[in-house]
Amino acid sequence: MAASDAPNGDVLIRNAFGSVLAFLILLLIGVLAFSIRLFSVIKYESVIHEFDPYFNYRVTQFLTKNGIYDFWNWFDDRTWYPLGRVIGGTVYPGLTLTAGTLYWFLHSLNIPLSVETVCVFTAPIFSAFASWATYLLTKEIKGVGAGLTAAALLAMVPSYISRSVAGSYDNEAVAIFALIFTFYLYIKTLNTGSLFYATLNSLSYFYMVCSWGGYTFIINLIPMHVLLCIVTGRYSSRLYIAYAPLVILGTLLAALVPVVGFNAVMTSEHFASFLVFIIIHVVALVYYIKGILSPKMFKVALALVVSIGLAVCCAMVAVIIALVASSPTKGWSGRSLSLLDPTYASKYIPIIASVSEHQPPTWPSYFMDINVLAFLIPAGIIACFSPLSDASLFAVLYIVLSVYFSGVMVRLMLVLAPAACILSGIALSQAFDVFTRSIKFQLPSLSDHSHIDARDASSENVVLDDTIKTDKNEDTPKERMTKRSKKKEKEPVEKPPTKFQIKKRLSVLPFEASIIAVILLVLLVAFYVVHCVWAAAEAYSAPSIVLTSHSNDGLHVFDDFREAYAWLSHNTDVDDKVASWWDYGYQTTAMANRTVIVDNNTWNNTHIATVGTAMSSPEKAAWEIFHSLDVKYVLVVFGGLVGYPSDDINKFLWMVRIGGGVFPHIKEPDYLRDGQYRIDSMATPTMLNCLMYKLSYYRFVETDGKAFDRVRRTEIGKKYFKLTHFEEVFTTHHWMVRIYKLKPPKNRIRGKNKKSKSKTSSTTTSKRKGTRRNPF
Amino acid sequence: MLRFALTLLLFTLAFGVLSSSPVFSDLILAKVDRRIDLTSQIVRITTSLKVENAGSNPISEILLSFPENQAKHLAYLTATLNEGKGKGKASSGAGLPTEVVIPKDVPDSLTFYSLSLPKGLGKGESLLLDVLAVFTHALEPFPEKISQADIQLLLFQDTAHFLSPYKVMVQSLAVKLPEARVESYTKLEGTKLSGSELKYGPFHNIPPFSYLPIIIHFENNQPFAVAEELVREIEISHWGNVQVTEHYNLFHGGAKSKGEFSRLDYQARPYVRGASAFRRLVARLPPRAHSVYYRDEIGNISTSSLWGDSKKTELEIEPRYPLFGGWRTAFTIGYGLPLRDFLFESDGKRFLNFSFGSPINELVIDTLIVKVVLPEGSKDISASVPFPVKQWQETKFSHLDLVGRPVVVLEKNNVVPEHNEHFQVYYKFNSLSMLREPLMLIFGFFFLFVACIVYMHADLSISKSSASYLAKVQWEEVQATVQQIHNIISHCLTAHDKLEASLRDLSRTGDVQACKATRKSVDSLLKGVSKDLKPLVTFLQSSPQAAHILPKVEELIAKERDLQERLMAKHTTVVDCYEKKLGGREIENRIASNQQKITSLRQEVDDLMDFIDEI
């Protein structure tokens, strides 16, 4: 035993060294994940980005100010005027509660960070967590080496960066962590069969439900995996423990979240899990009976049960189908339906289709968002099949499903990213494993042939170098093993046996090929890193409320949005209502603290259609609609002066479509000339007279004398006109936001009123009808 | 206009009555020169008085009176004795103490300030006094609402005669107006308008309480920046920094704008269409100010510029939008300053010497709150301010505080740039307290790591007899055993390698004896090894946990033994052959079949080793 003691200690130390190294690498990955997302803070400032994050920020402010109970009961009267919105019951609270907890924790330590700072840095912190969760998940699937590679890949995958840069305070920021962690706990339970992890899994699922509507992905993916395992004969008690508690506890917990509530058992998205829940019990029963009966008896019983069971199942299925079919959307929500049928949204719900992130992605966006991972995924899938385990089966299923979903909606590229990282991590790690091993086994033998006399010293040196090298590269258990055997081979003064190596060499690649392959792989990964850093720095870190442009005379900052919001918040009455297209609703409530008519939570299509109708109506009709809504200010975004392309004129067709969907007197063809959307002199008179056109181009011609619109690259159609029902009260420095005030109603003069009525009655009767349908 | 006229009328009536009342005291103002500066939104009235005591008793206080409409706008009043006989105007340093008094027999509409003279003024003596009175909000915009294109016109009203409880022998008044149009002014005898200066007087032998109203209506497009509230927070860190944070709540106090705001007009001709608006403010920060920031609640404001030299740092800030009359904005300026410039020590006490008002030029502040945050653990705190302020103490919790930092709060209404005097906050502070927070952090992390170490080494299972715990313990034992077996087998394999090597040596050197010696040593080694292996295998067989690895382990041992035997056989054959001096080809043939098996076995053993190692 004395002889085996020393190497034992050696192994222990090496193990400890390996785990410390892995820990250090993980720590660095966390730092990398956090710091690569700080480009936006460094290049711009520590500020909340885009649209939805502003809402989340506002909710977090409310939470930290008023506490959790007020938060659940919060009825927000500053939005969807005059309907209001029950925030506590319609928001996924995970993100808000996370940031709120973080805030309370920091303040209990007397670290006075502002709510904004906490919100800005929540996403980077959670992306560090997400990469650690990826490590754990991949480790469960394919070992430590693959885990570290996958974690490093995820830390900087552009797709995930796009949603989690500092300031992008959105649900996805924490949801991706929750998603990966839930999967990890599921696989962990599956591998260990421990009820402890099963319980943790349900809790993690609960957190995911709190955070994001995308939890339905989990509750459909896991049942599918379970079903696949059963079908391929991989049923085990571990599978049962992994699945059954998740469905029961998870559904109970999910129902606690107000926004989900009874949806957790009522909507079709969750049916798959219950169905599989039944199936797994049947299968468990069958295995149990199989265990206690003799094979012959079992066959008889099987025949009996199957015939009865089929009948019962048929009846059940019929009932369920009848129930589901009785609801118009078949019990699916619009967004989920558009997942199953990609053309659904554009056919029936323009409001979902109008959001750019609900569009299907283009091919370049795959390359942009996951870059070289797209090429590594197939290799990863192959690696998962050798050998196929429950866990690697899960990885394969995950990638296949997420590729499909990402093909339907750009937004779901985010779900694909972790899967792509996991599989690419596996692929890369296995490839490096093979190549470095083949290099290592051949290096000593090469030196053997050349320095046959001085082999004692030289070969050992080479081996030593080699072990050091691999220490730096990958730390897979296999390699550790080989290192270990190497060391032992070194103990005797005699040189390592060549025959052993020759045998090994049969299963490995040629030396030169593997060196070249390693170099190529390193180049590939380097290319990926360069791309990720570029994407993080240039493409995804713009906060979109501050725009910058570089020109010959330096940097230009376009801070018009905040200029307008600051003006609104300081110079209008607290209870004034501001109408704008729904994109700017969240920002207006958060930054200007004014009541808006519609916002980015597009829950009421009619209301949005009303605003859309007003924007596409002529001035007087629009004034009437706005007046009936108590609106005092109208805000439009106009990019024609500086060439800001995502302005209201470019979104205008959606307003027409959505408005026309509810109020039929707004017809899309009226705004198009020969099916083309144009604002120049060829535009239709309806277009040139609608409110949006007038508010955008009011006195625009006086800027350069020609009224050249730099976004549409054309001169506008109608240049000189006056506003009769609106007055300009504020326009920002670059004209990007223009705010108009509704003129007060004129004193009525009986005769005049009648005259104008009789004059316009013939032309506007249809429009009047339309506005009368307006519920307000 | 009508309202004005009415109030003026009332005043005249009131003072008309007053002027007939008896002389207040024996003092006579031999000469009064008043200069009114109307160039900015702040009205500054400088009065130089020549006071003579005509009575017999020495007098130690002088009364100054202000009508009510001025008194409520009075922000700052200082009087200095002028001993330099007019020339050089060397005023005698500190101002005279002033306080509000309410003498008898005077109308309520007058407010009196009494100046106490350092030494009584004897009979027939005279002295020169310089009085500076600063008023805010004393200029009224008229018309009250203007559109974007209009210029801002202001009304100023005062009395042409110096309002005083004393008789005035000779007096004159000069009004300095901004370099712009004067709409109208009250014309009296000898009124002269030359350039931007308006002159009244001289008047002779004016009785006490004489009030002769004048109204000046003039254009003024100076920025009317008024801070409704300004909170300045001065935080002292003994690590070498004074952090100043100023929260401004600003509005344009001039004529309110009405109707449209057209950016087009404003951009095309900013000084015509938008003359009354202001777009930038200049703040003079102390020298060596660093980390300056300028933001509001929705983020950084990008329109600012900073430059500085050794005497000052100048920060030019632009609000997010140009401020028209009545428009409001709010923002925050922050900067750090080196501690050594502001913190001094005297008689065991430290004191901060800092300026009171805002660094922004010509800013009127309605309410100024200055908070001085002292480091945690400061004691014996006292503040000294050169003018009366409201004062109290608070506690603020900041980074890692336990008891909080003491905060001295000073509040003052109606603050003008004249209040930018230095004030002092005295306190005692032990330098060792500085180390408290770093030590806290160090110990916090230390205990965290200790806790981690303890956790890693302690066995925290609740029940030591539970099935799962026992299973875990057993499994660990099994793992250890398997590891040992693995080690032993790899020893064997190295021994095999040694044998192979000796054979190769043999083929090179033909040294049979060396080869045999190796064989012997390997034999003994392998025997010992197989002895070691036995108890381990029996343990595995007895352990239920090892059931699923056992077959593999047994297979490994069997294979290894097989390999060993074959290798021995090969070795023997080869050595025999050498001893018999057979040819190389012959030896090859003899061991060929064995060799193949050895190769495949070795491969299998290696695979099994891999497998077991992964457990």
UniProtKB/TrEMBL annotation, chain B:
Pfam families to which the protein is assigned, alphabetical: Ribophorin_I
Biological process annotations from GO: protein N-linked glycosylation via asparagine
Bilayer topology: Single-pass type I membrane protein
Signal peptide positions on this chain: 1-20
Keyword line: Endoplasmic reticulum, Membrane, Signal, Transmembrane, Transmembrane helix
Transmembrane segments: 439-458
Ranges in coiled-coil conformation: none
Pathway annotation: Protein modification; protein glycosylation
Compartments, as annotated in UniProt: Endoplasmic reticulum membrane
InterPro entries found in the cross-reference section: Ribophorin_I
GO terms for cellular component: oligosaccharyltransferase complex
Stated family: Belongs to the OST1 family.
Function per UniProt: Subunit of the oligosaccharyl transferase (OST) complex that catalyzes the initial transfer of a defined glycan (Glc(3)Man(9)GlcNAc(2) in eukaryotes) from the lipid carrier dolichol-pyrophosphate to an asparagine residue within an Asn-X-Ser/Thr consensus motif in nascent polypeptide chains, the first step in protein N-glycosylation. N-glycosylation occurs cotranslationally and the complex associates with the Sec61 complex at the channel-forming translocon complex that mediates protein translocation across the endoplasmic reticulum (ER). All subunits are required for a maximal enzyme activity.
Assembly notes: Component of the oligosaccharyltransferase (OST) complex.
UniProt protein name: Dolichyl-diphosphooligosaccharide--protein glycosyltransferase subunit 1
Organism per entry: Arachis hypogaea (Peanut)
